[in-house]
Amino acid sequence: MEESIDKSQALAAQFAAVEAILAKNNHDPSRMIPILQEIQDVQKYLSKDVINYVASALKVPASRVYGVATFYAHFSLSPKGRHILRICDGTACHVKKSHATLEMLSKKLGLTDDKRTTDDLMFTVELVSCLGTCGLAPVVVIDDEVHGQSTPATVEAIIDDIIAKENAAKAEQGK
Amino acid sequence: MADSRKLTVNGREIEFTDERNLLEVIRQAGIDLPTFCYHSELSIYGACRLCLVEVTQNGRTMVMAACSTAPAPGMVIQTETKELREMRKISVELLLANHNTECPTCVRSSSRALQNIARRLGVAEVRYKKLQPEEMEPLDLSSPSLQRDPNKCIKCGDCVRVCSEIQGVGAIYFTNRGSNAKITTAFDAPIAGTECVNCGQCAAVCPTGALTAKQDSPRVWEALYDKSKTVVVQVAPAVRVALGEHFGAQPGENVAGKLVTALKLMGFKYVYDTSFTADMTIFEEATEFLGRVSNGGTLPLFTSCCPAWVRYMELYYPDMLANLSSCRSPQAMFGAVAKKVLPEQLGVKREDLVVVSIMPCTAKKYEAQLDKFKVDGQPEVDIVITTDEVGRMINSLGIHLSELAPSAFDMPMGFATGAGVIFGASGGVMEAALRYAAEKLENKTLENVDFVAVRGMSARKEATVHLGGMDIKVAVVHGLAQAKELLEDIRAGRANYHFVEVMACPGGCISGAGQPIGATNAIRKKRQQGLYTADKAHQVQKSQDNYLVTRCYEEHLGGHPGSHEAHELLHTHYQNRGQIFEAKVPVMRGTADKRLPVTVTVCDDGDCAGAKLVDQIAAHIKAMNLADRVDLDAAVASRKPAGLCVSVGDHVVEGGEPAAAIEEIKKAIDSGVASL
Question: Within a domain: residue B88?
């Protein structure tokens, strides 16, 4: 139970971080979107409690913050993985078979249309509209790095590499 | 060239003055353009595209939405062209395609705007793909007051705007985007767990059956058909001046007598008037007020008749709950008195007595099911139905209200004064209380009983009344957004009153969400006028002259207002519900089926009385071996100062010193777990 109290204090501390972002934006309700963006940058997603907290701090109804957060595809209301893969599905990438990469990843990582993040929170795979680099189609962005003319094989090699590195880091920690 | 304040509508020259938009000008010209999303008291949204008109100005012709176009001199407007007719029809067809059309079984079928407009525009078929069964979403039946059917929603946003603009609540909002857009609560949660105050104004403006009052009339029929039950009914003041609209009467026409006859035909044993306990409310509340004035008690005193307003205070201003009168609402007073007095008077067992309320209100349904208004688990008011519901019950009997001979309410609880009847209009409670206070403070008979300054539809009504050598400052507001403004003025010291009346609905109970749909300010004024006319028609106008209330005090309520017995039956307590807005962090989770929720408000820096209490409470739970049966949450408050606030089940411990509080909390946890 002491553990659970520590954990709750850690959770409470997370609101201190949110509070700092709110203070930086003067608790100004018209800055709701930048506030949510900053929070998501830090916490990777917007939790229910964070939305409630932001709403009462900005003195707006929680339904409105929820409405804004669900309107924009940019905001996520569920936790995201440590590594984010964005598969471009714009016209150019689509005709160059971006879906083959998506299928490979879904199968390899056990993901579906509704389940975009792996249970171990290692990967999130997203299908996005045009990334504006059609000359490189099909494009996959992995952790903010653009990979052009990708194939299922090249993408699989990259994520295998990531998995290997994570496992190595974990083994290192274990020692 | 037209005159500077003139424009042309369908070839006819129309004068305009300060109308906000073309729609108002055109409607004043006698042309009723169809609309879904336009309500004169709400902001303009321009979503339904039904008020489209052709506007020619400066040589250019455009199709515009009349609601969101300002009138300008010289405009030439056509409201009916082939193109406009087609566009409107397509809009309605698209709405119908998106709407789960089940008109014959829909409670709103008598008043449904969508149905009427479709018929008016001659929509003979819907060419688009209809909402499919597999696309249907579940209904939200969580609330005791309202039910939500997302499949009937046409996203006009009327409910969203009334909730935030008129009521200052905002429990629902537009969520998601495009074809997935949905009007719902935060996190799409059941509405009962949100900050919804149950006023139902969302349902009152909803043009479809997406938001409706919870239907309780089937339970009333069941009770009436049960031979072992004695069913009595109370009728709220505002019902009598609106119910007639169901049967073709003018708004404001008083149909109380005919309603009594109809209720007797249905099988109600006795029909009483809530105005009786409204008079009783004045005895208690005015006594409470005079007591606070002479003893230096907390002022201003706020009225507590309106359960939506009471919940609003519990949610948003828990620090000011001491200002709220401890008097129950007239409905709750009636329930308590009826269940105490009637079993003996009528010779029935308490458990065989069914008390039904007919209310203009959806929040009263919520109020009646609160634990604090139950005795041994049985509610004092068993079933609450709305004006609308009773109208449909009468319809189903096959009788026509207007043809019935009037009957009188049953005695003693059917005897009311004019002061009790005007409770249904904004300002009515204040006026009734002033009639009482004036005689008590002046020690002489009040001749002119009219306090007209508190009547009418103005947003905030203020008056200073000179009584007994004192200047009593009063204020009356209706609509919770107005109440919020007033509370903020009081907090900031910008306003100062002795006594404040608040009603959640615009114009008071006469336009509650249980009333016939489609109230405009003109209709509200007529209903209010109906009550003031009824006031004059009563033999007595002052609550204190209700000799049957006085007799009730003598026989059952300790002889005088404010007595111990009166406090037991006629007063109540309030609960800080502010934790609903706080972010919850789980500290301990039990595993038993039934668990006691304990929530401690803490600050985000973790260095506060609340954080220390969390440790102490957790230690206590562990020491007592209760860990399996308690859920302990820390609620992180963004509202500062958070102050000490711990809820244990329904019991809230707040303010004061942590050292004293922890003992009360421990006791509450022990007894709370024991009674799970």
Answer: no
Model ipTM value: 0.88
pLDDT tens by residue, B517-540: 988 999 999 999 999 999 999 989
B192 and B280 in a single domain? The answer is no
Q: Residue for token digits 């001491």? A: B322
B 566-585 residues with CB below 8 A of A?
Answer: 581-585
pLDDT band at B605 (very low <50, low <70, confident <90, very high): low
In terms of domains, do B209 and B234 share one?
A: no
Chain A residues whose beta carbon lies within 8 Å of the beta carbon of residue B627: 1
pTM recorded for the entire structure: 0.90
pLDDT tier at B2 (50, 70, 90 boundaries)?
very low
In a domain, B70, yes or no: yes
Domain co-membership, B227 together with B190? no
Whether chain B has a CB inside 8 Å of the CB on A78: the answer is: no
Q: Is B221 at the interface with chain A, CB within 8 A?
A: no
Query: CB B187 to CB A51 under 8 A?
Result: yes
Residue B360 is predicted with a pLDDT of 98
Q: How confident is the model at residue B186 (pLDDT cuts 50, 70, 90)?
A: very high
**Helix boundaries (H) for A91-149:** 91-95, 98-109
**Same domain assignment for residues B355 and B387:** yes
Residue of A nearest to B633 (CA): A8
Show the domain range for B113. 93-214
Which pLDDT tens digit goes with each residue over A19-54? 999 999 999 999 999 999 999 988 889 999 899 999
> What's the mean pLDDT in B84-103?
88
Comparing C-alpha atoms, which of B194, B145, B176 is closest to residue A62?
B194
**Alpha carbon of B602: minimum distance to chain A alpha carbons (Å):** 9
Does B486 map to a domain?
A: yes
Domain end among B570, B602, B625 = B570
Q: In whole angstroms, give the CA distance from residue A96 to residue A130.
A: 13
B587 at A interface, C-beta within 8 A: yes
List phi, psi (to 5°) of B13: -80, 130
Q: Is residue A135 within 8 Å of A90, Cβ to Cβ? A: no
Q: CA B373, CA A136: separation in Å to the nearest integer?
A: 70
Instruction: Report the share of chain B in percent with pLDDT over 70.
Output: 98
Substitution target from B176, B598, B604 for chain A, most A beta carbons within 10 A = B604
Kind plus residue range of the DSSP H or E element containing B272: strand B270-273
Residue boundaries of the structural domains of chain A = 2-71, 83-174
Chain-centroid distance, C-alpha B186: 21
User: Using the beta-carbon criterion (under 8 Å), do B585 and A48 form an inter-chain contact?
Assistant: no
Do B446 and B335 belong together in one domain? yes
Q: How many domains does chain B have?
A: 4
Summarize the confidence of residues B587-596 as an average pLDDT. 87
**Taking residues B269-277, what's their average pLDDT?**
97
| B86 falls within a domain | no
What is the mean pLDDT of the segment spanning B537-551?
95
* CA distance to partner chain B, nearest, from residue A61 (Å): 6
Asked if residue B543 and residue B598 are part of one domain, the reply reads no
Same domain, B333 and B410: yes
Residues B513, B467 contacting (CB under 8 angstroms): no
User: Does residue A52 sit at the B interface (CB-CB below 8 Å)?
Assistant: yes
**In terms of domains, do B263 and B374 share one?**
yes
On whether any CB of chain B is under 8 Å from the CB of A19, the answer is yes
In Å, how far is A59's CA from the nearest CA of chain B?
Answer: 9
Question: Rounded to a whole number, what is the distance in Å from the CA of B166 to chain A's nearest CA?
Answer: 14
Gap between the Cα atoms of B425 and B511, Å rounded:
9
In chain B, which among 630-649 make CB contacts under 8 A with chain A?
634, 636-639
Per-residue burial over B360-376, b = 16 or more CB atoms within 10 Å of its CB, e = otherwise: bbbbbbbbbebeebeee
Query: According to CATH, what is the number of the domain A83-174?
Result: 3.40.30.10
Q: Looking at residue B291, which CATH number applies to its domain?
A: 3.40.950.10
Which domain CATH number covers B206?
3.30.70.20
Under an 8 A CB cutoff, do A61 and B164 touch?
Answer: yes
Q: Does A129 touch chain B (CB under 8 A)?
A: no
